[in-house]
Amino acid sequence: MPMGLEISVCSMTAPYQQPLTVFARPILPLGSGSHWDKERWLSTPGAGQTPGARPHPDPALMEPGDGSEEPPLPLELARFQLSEEYGSLLPEPLTELPAPYGPWMEIAHDLPQLITSHRLRSRVHQMPQLSTRHLHGREELHLAHLVLSFITMGYLWQEGEEGTVKILPRNLAVPFWEVSQALGLPPILSHVDFVLANWRRKNPNGPLEIDNLDTIIALPGGESLRGFILVTLLVEKAAVPGFKAIVEAVRAVLQLDEETLHRALQDMAEAIRDMSKALKRMHDHVDPAVFYTVIRIFLSGWKDNPAMPDGLIYEGVSDEPMEYSGGSAAQSTILHAFDELLGIRHSEESATFLHRMRGYMPPPHRAFVEEIHRAPSLKQHVLSSGDTRLHVAFNQCVSALADFRSYHITIVTKYITIAAAKAKAGRAEPGTKSGSSIGKPPSALEAKGTGGSHIFSFLKSIRDTTREGMINA
Known about the structure:
Elements (H helix, E strand, L loop, with lengths): L19 E3 L2 E3 L10 H5 L59 H8 L1 H6 L3 H7 L10 H21 L9 E2 L1 H14 L7 H6 L3 E2 L11 E2 L7 H17 L1 H16 L2 H22 L2 H4 L2 H8 L17 E2 L18 H10 L5 H10 L5 H12 L3 H8 L2 H41 L26 H13 L6
Parallel strand pairs: 3-6
Antiparallel strand pairs: 1-2, 4-5
Helix pairs in contact: 2-5, 5-6, 8-10, 9-10, 9-13, 10-17, 12-17, 13-15, 17-18
């Protein structure tokens, strides 16, 4: 697959003069009066690992190792910004930015109305150019990324796929780029924005259940949009015990502790089955017609998308267009971690796409997946153990993961294939065309996922290669 174009950087206006310090690494804003030393910055380990540019290799795209290296002990979730309570979810995300970012929050909270009334682009053009130097800490940065990514998607797709723009204005592009660089994320809406950082409890003391949850920022789609985000969040919540089980399994292999390994594999299989149960709730909360005709376009990116074949110019950041994939379930950390632990080997084409999707994960989550990849082979350990209980427990994990992927195909069939056919039928009937582009069925990605993959061939391929990971008796 083609990579993005190399980035060139233009000088910026006066407000961007102070470095934004995030963790231990300073992010130098693009500012007039100071030269941004791209080559020096890119030589910093871990810097600039966003997937739209190609000045240096992304670790997620490097050749996999031979699996012979042992990860350092202890393997702890906290090292990777993961937890036994929340998994990959951002714990209790912030819902408001500091006062200087009021103009962003004001637009973000009114996005559905601004988009459907075709006023968002004009509001963005009037938006002041804000410095990112008042953002402190990971929580504020994640909320800023969430807000700017939603505004960007609304700005790009306000007029549907036939009314796209080629340039993201600098008052949106520059802060979005800076926040993205600080977090090591791409400047586009991804799974971490749409789901992992986009939730709040209605009752702060209430449970993490759909009736007590709401989104922080929304797009057009009403209750179906809310349902799509929150059911996906519940899938991630169901996966939380899977993270603990992965860590316990790796430790058990290293320590030759078969009892702990057997229990960890059982816990993992149960977590995957619970993920499938959570995914089935999509039917109760998301209308297929609303998802396909209203919601889906706002998850679409500008890589491998016929509606935006040339990518997008981030004004003030790049003179050349850059390409980024849209939000995708393939950006979920837990599924990659399961694959690595279980030794699932996908086809070259599918593996290439999946490795590219790792560039859309928070870098610590990506590092967790790579750590599991470097661990001793679980499958080889189970095979060499001769322990029938371990064989059975291992196969239950693989079977549960294949079943989850099969059910994902069922969901995609209902919400994309069948919905697309109904939308086409509606287009063909006289008098059914709406005057508004919002709600006009998209056509550019009828056979593709929002991440840019050929959706059915990809999903069936990874389901089948998952099944092939079973240990034969």
